[in-house]
Automatic annotation (TrEMBL):
This is HM13 protein. The keyword Lyase does not apply. It comes from the Eukaryota. The lineage of its organism: Eukaryota, Metazoa, Chordata, Craniata, Vertebrata. It comes from Probosciger aterrimus (Palm cockatoo). One of its GO terms (molecular function) is aspartic endopeptidase activity, intramembrane cleaving. Keywords: Endoplasmic reticulum, Hydrolase, Membrane, Transmembrane, Transmembrane helix. Belongs to the peptidase A22B family. It is a multi-pass membrane protein. GO terms for cellular component: cytoplasmic side of endoplasmic reticulum membrane; lumenal side of endoplasmic reticulum membrane. The gene is Hm13. Its main location: endoplasmic reticulum.
Amino acid sequence: AAAHNGSAGAGPAAAARPPATPEGMALAYGSLVLMALLPIFFGALRSVSCAKSKNSSEMPETITSRDAARFPIVASCTLLGLYLFFKIFSQEYINLLLSMYFFVLGILALSHTISPMMNRFFPANFPNKQYQLLFTEGSGESKEEIVNYEFDTKDLVCLALSSVVGVWYLLRKHWIANNLFGLAFSLNGVELLHLNNVSTGCILLGGLFIYDVFWVFGTNVMVTVAKSFEAPIKLVFPQDLLEKGLEADNFAMLGLGDIVIPGIFIALLLRFDISLKKNTHTYFYTSFVAYIFGLGLTIFIMHIFKHAQPALLYLVPACIGFPLLVALAKGEVTELFSYESSAEILPHTPRLTHFPTVSGSPASLADSMQQKLSCPRRRRQQSPSAM
């Protein structure tokens, strides 16, 4: 998403507010960059464990070249549909429904995110009981499982902690609760959505490059939706935190699409590094540095021109160009483009049928995460994911 002003922005303060101080702006921008890097780094690490999972229900969704080609079209339709909804119906009632929807979705996403970390804090003698939620249709030989979800006491504790954050967000819409949900969505997206090869990644990022530029510079649709949409589909940080404390309200913003989309490409390069069996993570660290450079350039340009910027305009060339230059220098271009993530690690991964969020299309991530987090599945292994 474009980073822009006020309740949905990362630019200078709105006209109705006093200008942000240089210190406040630096703190806000620096915090947004740091928050964007965390889900990409840890999500990429967890994507490796996710890919190697023996449990079929834990396998990630694989994005094919066909999915990648359709993605900008689907995202554009979603964005335009949201724009029309906000123009036709009352913004208050739409956001009320969205708040309830993301309340449930955010709790599930946050619980899934903190579960591996929380397992380390439970004592060895913790009374961990096993539970199973089973819902079937029919009887006898024709009986069919609709829901078969196994969980334990530790999972319930994580769910309870996540519910506290959910209630906080529902009642206050506080920016910290928003960010906790946003970080959880981003990390889950990077972990569970896998590109099957580098060519698919180039198609996806290239299509969204055009999508982001068109909807930000060509129309006011992206900006209107971002300002109207009250949901944790962006990371925010107040530029007036130093003056107003936790009650600050002049926010800088970064859409989750600008984290998840480059993030799944960076995670693919990490899995490629591992496939080379050289005990180096050259391509992962190169793309990671490229992301930092691209995001920093986005903030710099936005600060200079005082206008919302499509972050993918800068992130896509950096995240694709830097690793490609490294591959050319090392003579590994053929290996890079011939690498098949799904063939090497995921022999039977399902195709992606729901799309992750992209800049300005928040409903897409909701669909994707809801399918992954609320579908019937087996309980996760007790050993925490690689962090």
